[in-house]
Every structure is written in structure tokens, then in C-alpha cells.
Design brief:
Blueprint lengths: L1 E5 L2 E6 L1 H9 L3 E5 L3 H6 L6 E2 L17 E5 L4 H12 L4 E5 L2 H7 L4 E4 L6 E4 L1
Parallel strand pairs: 2-6, 3-4, 3-5, 5-6
Antiparallel strand pairs: 1-2, 7-8
Length: about 120
């Protein structure tokens, strides 16, 4: 995990392995900031959706029980959202390095679309 101080806030960049471990343990809320179309085509099972275009820091859940970790396709949008969350007053923000592309590249499980019938299916 990489850590950066931004003013009074802490900005963390997590690896896909760190995200997977914390997500499985129920320690984080994973928020996908890609478009609804990207999410519907394939996503990490259990991740919430808050697209960058509709991002509102004041609509985020509190972090008293679980830390929020943002992710997108490559890491660029989630970093942008993370920095916007810091500007909005959040003191502890994290995002997943490399985004969903890195998640898939590391052969982590996700929900994809069966191209033969259009139905969602688990990809391991």
C-alpha cells in the first residue's frame, strides 16, 4: 500500500491483492466509479456503483465500520474521485491501483457477461 499525505488527509493506493483480502474479510466498502454500462458488462461482485459523472462526496456512506476503497477501469478515475473526496472533507481515502484491468489481469473473480446469451456469470 502506498500512502500520501494530502493536507490533513491520508490518500492510500491499494494493490488488487490488498483489496481482495480486505473485501473478503468485510473490512472495506468497494465503490466502482465506472459507467453503468461498464459495470453491467463486468464488475467485482459486491462492489457498489457510484459513477464518476454522478459523484457526490456527501452521499458516501460513513467510514466508522468499513473503509471506502474506490476503483475504476485503470485507476485514473478512481484517483480523481479519491482526490475529490479529500477536497470534500474526507480524511482517509483509498483507491485500487490499476483498477478493474489489474483485477482481471491478476485473475481475481468477477461477474462477467456470457456473450452467447447475455446473462451474467461468475468468472474465476
Amino acid at each position: 500500500m502506498k500512502t500520501e499525505e494530502v493536507g490533513q488527509a491520508i490518500f492510500e493506493t491499494w494493490t488488487v491483492d490488498e483489496v481482495e483480502e480486505a473485501f473478503k474479510a468485510g473490512k472495506i466498502v468497494l465503490i466502482d466509479v465506472r459507467t453503468p454500462q461498464e459495470y453491467m458488462f463486468e464488475h467485482i461482485e459486491g462492489a457498489l456503483l457510484m459513477p464518476l459523472a454522478f459523484f457526490k462526496a456527501d452521499a458516501l456512506p460513513g467510514q466508522s465500520d468499513k473503509q471506502i476503497v474506490f476503483h475504476c477501469g485503470s485507476g485514473a478515475r478512481s484517483e480523481k474521485v479519491s482526490r475529490a473526496a479529500i477536497e470534500a472533507g474526507m480524511a482517509h481515502v483509498a483507491h485500487m491501483e490499476g483498477g478493474f484491468g489489474a483485477w482481471k489481469g491478476a485473475k481475481k473473480p468477477y461477474i462477467g457477461t456470457n456473450m452467447a446469451n447475455g446473462a451474467p456469470h461468475r468468472v474465476n
